[in-house]
Amino acid sequence: MSDRLEKIIEFVEKNSIVADIGTDHGLVPIYLSKNKIAKRIIGIDISEKSLLKLKLKIENNLKYQNIYPIVSDGLKALKPFEVDTIIISGMGGLLISKILEESPEIAKSANTLVLQGNNNIEALRRFLHENGYAIVDEFDVFENSKYYQILKVQSGLEVYKKDYYYEFGKVLIEKGSLNLKGFIELEIEKINNIIEDIEVLSKEDMTEKINNFNERKEYLKQVVEEIESNRCN
Ligand SMILES: C[S@@+](CC[C@H](N)C(=O)[O-])C[C@H]1O[C@@H](n2cnc3c(N)ncnc32)[C@H](O)[C@@H]1O
Question: How far apart, in whole angstroms, are the C-alpha atoms of residue 106 and residue 78?
Fold first, then answer.
């Protein structure tokens, strides 16, 4: 089990009924069943071929008889209140938003959504706030040099005052996440390298570009400062 998937599973309540959307390899349903974390798990994938991996794992294995594989698009095969927890992970933030947007009555009827987008997390957080969801907790993890954020979401009204809370995660900033601090510091380092390259290599006037990069750097430094001050409190 990867660190990313372990963190996703940490947000699943014991004895709950779970739907794993875009289950693919089916590692999440298998883990939830094997470790008796969930009562019943519906593994959903839009691709018959992807779902076959889970089907083969559970076939003829009595241990996994509480896993139900279904080919379906997003939440469309579920009924309202059928599951307690919906996991959507390992796909883009925009696709996750689309899946939630297409079946609001299903998404809203679950107690908890566990969402992990591989990109466009800022857009996902904005979508959630604009559609009556609150982000109640977050984890983050580095895996194979990639940085992932995992959101625990419930119905509720919430708005963030600072833009960077949408980009980087208010909860993670408040938790003083060292992973997030490391991720932002890497971004600052990349900007420094770009500025250095421009100054050495460019023959044109790049003042405006350099100013934009410096502005972004100052913005990122504010986030690092807030993370550090939360670690001191
Ligand atoms: C990269 S895999 C992620 C696997 C696993 N959830 C994880 O986090 O490692 C993405 C899976 O989502 C499935 N998928 C994409 N769009 C979907 C949709 N609208 N509904 C259900 N599954 C979808 C794909 O077929 C693919 O198997």
Answer: 7
Helix, strand, coil shares of the chain as percentages rounded to 5?
50, 25, 25
Q: How far apart are CA 31 and CA 21, in angstroms?
A: 15
Among residues 195, 185, 177, the alpha carbon closest in space to that of 231 is found at: 177
Side-chain-side CA neighbours of residue 110 (13 Å): 29
Assess whether the C-beta atom of 89 lies below 6 angstroms from ligand 1: yes
pLDDT tens digits for range 63-93: 899 999 999 999 999 999 999 999 999 999 9
With contact defined as beta carbons under 8 Å apart, do 106 and 63 qualify? no
73 lines ligand 1 (CB under 6 A): yes
State the amino acid at position 212 in one-letter form.
N
- The angle, 0 to 180 degrees and rounded to 10, between the axes of the packed helices 27-34 and 3-10 is 60
CA of 38 to the centre of ligand 1 (A): 20
pLDDT, tens only, 127-180: 999 999 999 999 999 999 999 999 999 999 999 999 999 999 999 999 999 999
d(CA 24, CA 49): 9
Query: Phi-psi category of 169—alpha, beta or left, where left has phi over 0 and alpha has psi -120 to 50?
Result: left
